[in-house]
Amino acid sequence: MSIPPNSPHVKTRPRRRYDSTRRLAQAAQTRLDVLTAARRLFPERGYAGTTINEVATVAGVAVETIYRAFGSKAALFKGVLEAAIAGGAERAATPPEQRPAVRKMAEEPDPRRVLELHAATQPGIHARSGPYNRVLREAASADPDLGAVWRQLEAQRLAGMMRLAKRLRDLGALRPGLSVEEAGDVLWTVNSYTVYDHLVVQRRWPPERYRDWIVATNAHALLGQV
Questions:
Q1: Can you give the CATH number for the domain in which 169 is found?
Q2: Where does 50-143 have alpha helices with state H?
Q3: What Rg, from alpha-carbon coordinates, does the chain have?
Q4: Model pTM greater than 0.85?
């Protein structure tokens, strides 16, 4: 005699709960593996010479996995450069305003000290991102997608400099007649990778001298301080 499905004698297996935390952790690790592989390959082989197939092989993932995570080769490169700027893929996932260095600048009441705190971050950022900036500059003119990445990153950097300029304005520190927009343009230029490349890479300035020059130059231009 068969037992009815709803009989109390029928044992049913409990449904397995969907473990979203584990899935998210696995996806984050996969993304980190892909970025780590790409960070190694792009400086070695250049943008055009690095293929998604090679990145997938080094990362130990399928090509489709990379496209699902990043969408395109240009977007993958953007992720690599943002991770280098932030000091790691984990930090890159944190909104800029939540990063410790940015919070310290937001809480500092002394305008010159704000510029000093910002300048202290620049040698490390440029040293980490320099190899990828060189790849980007060389390939952006020939690849429209990478050219768009260049413009996006520069727009993000300019927005960050405008926030710093607004902080100085809110402290009442900008010299008379200087607008936030002009102050942001000055910061965007003085703190650019191009200036770092000229002074540190080509002219062999020690990072400390470059850092102090940034402070002095910005203080003079924005605050009217010597």
A1: 1.10.357.10
A2: 52-59, 63-70, 73-86, 89-92, 100-107, 111-140
A3: 24
A4: no
